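Before relying on records like the one below, remember that each one covers exactly one chain. Contacts with other chains, cofactors or solvent are not represented anywhere in the record.
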Amino acid sequence: MSRIYYGCQTYTWKMNQARFAGDLPHIVSVAAKAGYEGLESEICMLGDYFNDPLRAKAVFDDAGISLAALVLHQDWKHMTETEDERAMTEKALDFLSVFPKARLMVSHHAVPGDRSDDPEALALRRRQVISCMASVANRAGEQGIVTAYHPNSSVNSLFRTHADYEVMFDMLSKTAVGWVPDIGHIVNGGMDALAMLKTGRDLIRHVHFKDRLGQNEWAVMGEGRIDYPAVVSYLKETQYGGWIMVEDESPKAAEDSDAVVLADGAYMQRFRD
């Protein structure tokens, strides 16, 4: 039977990166205290643990939670990976080899200039990113690792509006790359979250939650305006089996990352069966 697992993302601590980067035991212990079953980590937040996956696994095992996913950010500005990008991908796959059920979540560095007003330039940039991610997904798949793409709603994102998502769904459907719907970013991009989940349901491999008050105004879970009970109900009704990760980017997270993780965890308890 399909089951939803609940976890959190390290971005909440990344808002205080200088303090928390590399302190995996602390991050994992707070996630466990918040009642989460897993953690999704960005590479930059792992510190030296990224070079020693067995040591990282011991931290997760001691806390009794799982590594749900590893985030791989790359530039991917060519149709094929650069040598440095390929080397980083291989290191990420080596890291995941000791976490057999973890996902590989991919995204590109959305920097100024990525989102061109020239349709041909934008189409090329999209093909470059998807082509590289497809290559990553193929190699990950050989190791039994599921790869999924997380678009966002920043002004430089290649996929942030309803029309963009239609293009993205078509491109992803031709690859082994799945989709990570981030509910907050979907709404922030002017879309109806449930409608987009229904349209792209077959591509969903992983899910992100963040609450929102208004345009680019992020909130602690339950303090925003997104109808998360309806989202969870839909995922359960359609037999979604996998992770829902809370990625809090609210101003409060910058003030006290640990307290926000605990508050988000308390909110998410209502969705457990």
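The beta strands are 4-9, 38-42, 66-74, 103-108, 147-149, 178-179, 207-209, 211-214, 217-219, 242-246.
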